[in-house]
Amino acid sequence: MKQGKLVTLAIESSCDETAAAVLLEGRRILSNIIASQIKTHQVFGGVVPEIASRHHLDNVNKVVTQALEQADVGMKDVDIIGVTYGPGLVGALLIGLATAKAYALAAEKPLVGVHHIQGHISANYIEHQDLEPPFMALVISGGHTNIVQVTDYNQCEVLGQTRDDAAGEAYDKVARVLGLGYPGGPLIDKIAKQGDPAAVAFKRVFLEKGSLDFSFSGTKTGVLNYVNSEKQSGREIKVPDVAASFQQAILEVVVAKTVGAAVARKQDKIVMAGGVASNSRLREMMTDACEKEGVRLYCPSPILCTDNAAMIGCAAYYKYKAGYTDGLDLDADPRLPL
After folding, report:
1. Range of 45's domain?
2. What CATH number has the domain bearing residue 170?
3. Which side of the chain, N or C, has fewer Cβ within a 10 Å radius?
């Protein structure tokens, strides 16, 4: 292992963002390039895997080149190549992974496969230079809703997860029902500011006593039934009120379970991660709940909440420092467990 400051090149392609980044010593971003496909998928109301894969193929080498140029480093300066290998869309993952393998082979650099969720958690190390494990993490995105106890940089335990829809997925589906468009999370967050969160009594699903798992499909279905009922009765649907009420029902459960898990396990730090972690109402509610319990809250900037390669580079750095590397036989795993 090279002595001195390590340079990591990272690639992320698990869903619809093609991203590459260069980091110094795991926590300092030298470049963070993201090619977004949001406008491409908006017309479909969600990500189309085949289209996402084609765009990754077109963009991946471009973003790597841009990341190296912006960081002003060449492949000879790179020490580690980190890449997401799961979970995610298998076609999308394979393109990023194949690219990382090609660079690793050609430049004779070590390859480090990264779990996408571990990457999201690691975004907080970049944002908060003082942050170290242990802590409790809330990973909340379009594909995941997990409460994770992080005991070390490479060690964690999933305490709770969604049994059906992820929170971000529920946001997208409700936004579609309300005619707001895609992606749903930011649109609901914005319009909910104009609504009354107590206007409609949607169900709060806490599941069985002591469970840290989540279930959002019932709340989502409640919105659908309410909208259909109002339409059939000829009543006007107040979209801001419905959006605010739905959001409140989801977030009350998320906040209560996350902060409750931290307090029960005597953790004095909570980190948030994932695309929905940029939700303004969630941040307000988590801040209030953490202050009441004397828990310190860490949140990344919005650019580090959504899928990006800088977070993957940070996670790869800590895996490499702990002695983990992968061979060129590393395969994509769309259902990779944490």
Report:
1. 7-124+305-321
2. 3.30.420.40
3. N
| Single-letter amino acid code for the residue at 93 | L
* Whole-angstrom distance, CA of residue 22 vs CA of residue 238: 46
For the segment 77-133, what is each residue's pLDDT rounded down to a tens digit?
Answer: 999 999 999 999 999 999 999 999 999 999 999 999 999 999 999 999 999 999 999
Rounded CA-CA distance 80/111 in Å is 6
User: Which of 139, 147, 190 shows the shortest CA–CA distance to 300?
Assistant: 139
11 neighbors 40 (Cβ within 8 angstroms): no
Domain membership of residue 329 (yes or no) is no
DSSP state of 17: E
Number of domains in the chain: 2
Give the separation between CA 126 and CA 117, rounded to whole angstroms. 15
Q: Are residues 171 and 228 in the same domain?
A: yes
Helix/strand/coil (H/E/C) assignment for every residue in 30-54: EEEEEEECHHHHHCCCCCCHHHHHH
What is the C-alpha radius of gyration for the chain, rounded to an integer number of angstroms?
A: 20
In the predicted model, is pLDDT for residue 67 greater than 60? Answer: yes
DSSP conformation class of 236 = P
Q: In what order do the strands lie in the sheet with 155-161?
A: 155-161, 145-152, 135-140, 269-273, 296-298
